[in-house]
Amino acid sequence: QVNAVVFSPDEKHFATCSEDGSVRVWSVSSIELVVQFQVLSQACGCVCWSPSSCKGGARVAAGYSDGTLRIFQIASSEMEMKLHPHDGVAVTAIQYSATGHVILSAGGDGLVAVSSTVNGATIRVIRDHRGASITTIQCVNQHCQTLGLEGNELWLAASTDRRVSVWAADWLKDKCDLLDWLTFPAPLFLGGDAPPPSLAAFAPTDPSLVVYTGYGVEKELSFYSLVRKQIIKKITLPHWVSCLSLSRKSQLVAVGSQERVLKLINWSSGKCQDFTRHSDSLQTCHFSPSGTLLFTVAFNEILLWDVH
């Protein structure tokens, strides 16, 4: 089973990670395997790329079921660092900070660890989501003074209890302050499996806008303004969402569902289009940085889409 697929910042490569403990880096143009990093007897649950501003070449960081993180150097095909910030709890989300100075990772216990990319030390543990598994971490460049706090980047975490925390940070100054805390109500879940995941992302064209979807009273996308401190828009959906990605291009949102449907929505006009090419429920979708390509994943099946 493929757990994640992410584009490199330059869109020349993409990385996948799987239940079998492998991290694979592929060429986008040829869809050929460039390098594979294998960890035995561990599942790899999440993977991310270093930002292009990082010195020393491209790296991928991956989180594993035993609570470890590993940083792999692409050029040398070697593991650069192994970190232990999660004490045996499976890592559920991982992301380089927007500047690349730290890695944020989260476990099934809801703890978010901030680790140095220089020496691997855990420099901060954020416990606000404790008790609920983290589904999403995202970091973006943003001057936070416009939102009333110091910092040069925003980051968010979403957890399975339908809560989203938004933070302003300047990691070189060891600053990290809570900017906003969103809680989305929901009725008791009576389904057989786990409820749909809680998913959140910054709007690429306006990071002061947070897009959220998850189990709730209605099946919908919510658009929350960090400036106005309120939901300013909702889009009704036919299915619960299993994965979410936002494009830099033409205000598109991709949402996948357990009903095997990929839906592309223009969130300014509300127009949408459905695609039904997958043979299993969608678990991951990911736009390229430019928004011209889109990956979708259903179990072990990966589709690459051209977005016009």
Automatic annotation (TrEMBL):
Assigned keywords, A-Z: Repeat, WD repeat
WD repeat placement: 1-36
Domain WDR90 4th beta-propeller: start-end pairs: 1-307
Record-linked PROSITE patterns: WD_REPEATS_2 (PS50082), WD_REPEATS_REGION (PS50294)
Highest taxon of source: Eukaryota
Residues spanning the signal sequence: none
PANTHER family associated with the record: POC1 CENTRIOLAR PROTEIN HOMOLOG (PTHR44019:SF8), WD REPEAT-CONTAINING PROTEIN 55 (PTHR44019)
Protein name: (spotted green pufferfish) hypothetical protein
Annotated source species: Tetraodon nigroviridis (Spotted green pufferfish)
Taxonomic lineage from the root: Eukaryota, Metazoa, Chordata, Craniata, Vertebrata
